[in-house]
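Hi R.,

As promised on Friday, here is the backbone we talked about, encoded as structure tokens. Could you run it through your design pipeline when you get a chance and send me back a sequence?
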């Protein structure tokens, strides 16, 4: 029998379409990306000492410039805040002084009365009116008087100068006499009230 020769394969046409790569295989362009990264890393590794020094000096200069800018901005903020606080305090003081000026005028009018016609009672009444006006104006600015007879003794607001007998046990450790009023301003204690404290003994008698 004669052996059969294999048929030659047909040649593909020149304009045949290129088939897409099988699923899971990256295209050629994507496969080249790691190569570019490797080349960049290689250039960094091969950076000369002079180039590294130049690069680091540039980064250091940039960081120093940024630090100086932040420090200057903070210094300007601090100065501006201090100036605004001083101006606010000055305006508050000016408002209080303006209120006191009216009281000074009232005192002047009391002193200018005709002494040949005014009695001592008239002068005392005039001083009392001025005193009440001064207290009212200062209270409107935030001043608060501390120390009233009958209120509980508070060492945070009162300074005990002495003691007086208490009429009953309920009056024990209360203010019996106010020798000098205290004052608070804006919740802060300016001066404690100097008082005498009522004391009651457990034996049923008042302290003597």
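Update: got your reply. Pasting your designed sequence below so it's all in one thread:
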């Amino acid at each position: 029998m004669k052996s059969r020769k294999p048929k030659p394969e047909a040649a593909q046409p020149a304009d045949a379409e290129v088939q897409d790569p099988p699923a899971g295989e990256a295209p050629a362009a994507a496969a080249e990306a790691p190569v570019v990264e490797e080349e960049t890393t290689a250039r960094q590794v091969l950076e000369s000492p002079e180039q590294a020094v130049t690069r680091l000096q540039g980064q250091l200069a940039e960081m120093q410039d940024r630090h100086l800018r932040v420090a200057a901005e903070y210094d300007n903020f601090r100065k501006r805040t201090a100036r605004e606080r001083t101006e606010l305090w000055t305006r508050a003081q000016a408002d209080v002084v303006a209120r006191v000026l009216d009281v000074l005028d009232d005192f002047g009018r009391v002193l200018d009365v005709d002494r040949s016609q005014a009695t001592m009672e008239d002068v005392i009444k005039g001083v009392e009116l001025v005193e009440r006006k001064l207290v009212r104006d200062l209270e409107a600015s935030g001043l608060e008087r501390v120390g009233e007879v009958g209120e509980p003794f508070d060492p945070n607001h009162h300074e005990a100068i002495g003691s007086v007998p208490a009429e009953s046990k309920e009056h024990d450790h209360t203010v019996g006499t106010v020798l000098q009023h205290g004052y608070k301003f804006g919740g802060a204690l300016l001066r404690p009230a100097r008082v005498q404290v009522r004391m009651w003994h457990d034996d049923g008698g008042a302290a003597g």
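One thing I noticed while checking it: Residues 6 and 12 are 18 Å apart (CA to CA).

Thanks again,
M.
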